Structure of Peptidase S8:
Amino acid sequence: MKQMYTGAWLLMLSLLLGFSEASVAAKGDFDEIIVNFGDRIEQETIQRIGERYGIALEFNSIFSREENIMRFPVGDMSPDECSDLMRVLTDLDAVEYAEPNYLYQTYLTPDDPRYYEQWNMQMIDMEDAWEEADGHGAIVAVIDTGVAYEDYQQGKKVFRQVPDLATTTFVPGYDFVEDDEHPNDENAHGTHVTGTIAQSTHNKVGVAGIAYNASIMPLKVLNRYGFGNIADIAEAVSFAADHGAHVINMSLGGGAASRLMRDAIAYAHQKGVTIICAAGNEGRSRASYPAAYPYAIGVAGVGPDGRLAPYSNYGSGTDIAAPGGNTRERKEDGILQNTIGRAKPLVDTYEYFQGTSMAAPHVAGVAALLVSVGVKEPEAIEKILLESADSRGDSAKFGAGIVNAAAAVRLAKDLNEEAEAKNRTASSFNFRESMLYFLAGVGFAIAYFKLLKRSDGYGKLFSFLFSLAMLLSSSGLFVLQWLPRCFLPSSWVHVLSSPFANLDRIFGGASCSAINPFFHSALLPFVLIVALLGMKRGKVFAVGFTLGMASHLFVDTFFSLANVIYIPGTFLFDKLWLLGNGVLCFVLAVFAGKTS
């Protein structure tokens, strides 16, 4: 229990620091105050305190009785009155502390005040998706008119960041129009597109974005009038691929096919980038470029009723649909985001835009969510997006259907879990298989030294050269599979962890069930014995390798169903090949061991 001087000290400290519960209230909303009484305070005392200060104290729940935690409504008290009352109660001997009973809310529903106007977020089931992912770790390149992402002055031009991108993360981009490192928006289009992908969210400002914790790479290729050329756009695509982007959004299009653009998109795809493009606004039965290129995901636009918008292209080159808005009847049916005024970088506004330019960033945002849950390969992302889309039954108009963020994230997580389960099973199987080969190698080495009656046998068995050679041919350095991959490239690990006989699967193209007779034979052991027999250390390595090969071939003989290619006849002849070469390897090792 506190003493009287404790309350007096707290009161003095609160005055010195300018403490006010009103300032605390400003940090969050509450309509009740919590009072924590001492554990041994009688109910009569608590009742008298309630009557004295006119507060209706009640236990928070049946679990609060033991610790005497109570609460009361603040009613119409002002923040200052709440502050004064909490301070007075805290000073009482019977009270441990009094504090606001803050109201918390799920983060699944953003607190952005105009979020309720974003019908598009409801259409793609964003609130359920936010339960699982927020885009953290993903980098989305926005190839557009630039973004109002910074406060910057360039000569007479002054740029300001729009307020609702204040907490959005940006990575360095480039202005291919002015050839500088400040891709600021002078048009409004690129900033609006960026907002759909990653508008600052849960900040009590404006509206929400799909992958609000993703990072944006602004790449300016269109001027203040919304025009640009293929050379700049293609360079921006390559720039994004070379600088770590996971997703590219291109809400632009026009013109005919370009080999330069086709090559740039293919390059980005090869580098592991998912490319999302607007299908176009001409109302045609084919997508425009760049959506029509291979490796690009073309996005059609739908209105709030889920119907294809009258402006949207569809058909060939259209893979999926997303909310693009339709302001024909009312502007509120457009897509609402924070942007600048048209050609007015210093004007901050919220605008309803429509077009497949607005549809594409919905898909780009969902792709960023998939990256954040561990799916990074563009083929896998496209497959998940298409399989999880809400089908509309008309693939010519909607492609796979309307993108569904929640279904996409759930499918990605399910596939991740399946892959992890398969990896665990494969890892367990590989470990048991490798241990069998390893133990067989050790057994053959022990038998070898006992047969030769060598007194130094066990010393040789555990010598570095002998052990290394035996491991390379019997089981491979399989323990490397469980070491952090920062030590060696994965390709090296794959080779070194495989026994020599299994390298035919890596270099020779053999399958698990069809093996190469030259790798599964005494050929290399024979060459090593002949070449290294006259060298003391070389002989130790050759004998270790030959014994390891013998043990590997014996295990394959009795525990494998492998088919040896080029060996005619039945399964029996394959076994005879393996067994015969295994015996020959052991004989070669004994011969070398007996040779002085």
